[in-house]
Amino acid sequence: MSVASVFAAPAAAAHVAVQPAAAGFYTMSPGRLGSTTAALVALVGVVVGGLALARSTGLSRPGALRGRALLALAAGLFGMLLGGVVAATADGGLGTGNGLGGALVALVVGLASMVLGGLGLARSRRTG
């Protein structure tokens, strides 16, 4: 056994210990929980924004369209902010269980929610 192999073994072991471990399939890591929450909130924003654009006049009071549009904007903004935080703090790449995939979905769905909310808000201002 040479002196070089004695010093090389702990260095290699330390390098392996620094690697982030992938989460199990059913493990709910904080990143997964955050990205799932962000995606669901943004999805609620998309549904509410779609309802604001649909203008179901028989079922809603006059100010409901503006309220729905603002709710869609707020939900989309929250989904994008939380998804951005999860994406920025994810240790590994896609498939490691850190929530990066869900965070990217939350960013896209949150953007769609904000667009629908903005369109609904513009329509509610135009129609009174």
From TrEMBL:
Transmembrane segments: 33-53, 65-88, 100-122
Pfam families referenced in this protein's UniProt entry, alphabetically: DUF6223
Lineage: Bacteria, Bacillati, Actinomycetota, Actinomycetes, Kitasatosporales
Listed InterPro entries: DUF6223
Protein name in UniProt: DUF6223 family protein
Originating organism: Streptomyces bullii
Keywords, alphabetical: Membrane, Transmembrane, Transmembrane helix
